Amino acid sequence: MQIRLLLLATLLVLQTSQTASAHFQMLQVDQYMRARGGPITLSMPFTHPSNGGPMMAMDEPHSLVMHHKGKQTDLTDVATELEWQGAKGKAKAYQSEAKLRGLGDYIFALTPAPYLEESEDAYIQQFTKTVINVGGLPTGWDRSLLLEAEIVPDQQPYGVYAGGLFSGVVMAKGKPKAGVEVEVEFLNHPVNAEKNGFDDLPFIEYPSENLNIQTIRTDNNGRFFFGVPHAGYWGFAALSVGESTRYMGKDLSQDAVLWIQAHQLKRLR
Ligand SMILES: [Cu+2]
Fold this sequence. Notes:
The protein has one helix and 23 strands. By secondary structure, it is mainly β.
């Protein structure tokens, strides 16, 4: 009887952590590899990307910074509030314009305000990075920004092969973290920046409901590996990475999110 109760309790804990942790902060730009610079739009909904929803309402972000060749541009005040249309309902989100000037890598780093997950009575704060490249010249996609929680990629996150292996290191202020859970989801509903929402039609169908998400763990060096099944945008969320574990009298999970773009190689013959 006791064992059965214990099993039941364990199951319940597993279930709640699963539903609550499938959140992904987005920092989305259409096409991470660009032939030339110019203006771009960064869409920042907080959602479950494998299903295009439900949406979680964001508070005003703490910071949004563009890093390019050692130069930082603060975009926090440029970000504007909007209503994001998910596949299931709307929620407050943010959007920002940015200008890419010159060749190389642009690392965008978003620090959102902690989000109160009511089902867990705990806060979630996802430090999120997206790397955009202009002109094919790599200039620092692999450097750590020494964020509280961060995924540092082992290869260009904008130029991953569909069907290839992707790996990265989970870090807290530049120090690798072993044994961290990393959740992986596919951006299954295309972002439509003009209509501030996701398109209704998904790209893929999951073989079963719980296979919309993969959970992997970092090894002793803080590294995780993931075979990327197909082209598109993939999100990686490393959970409870940062040192701060309390906020406003409640538990806080400082997560690290990284977005990558995988590309299909086209055979000519
Ligand atoms: Cu959620």
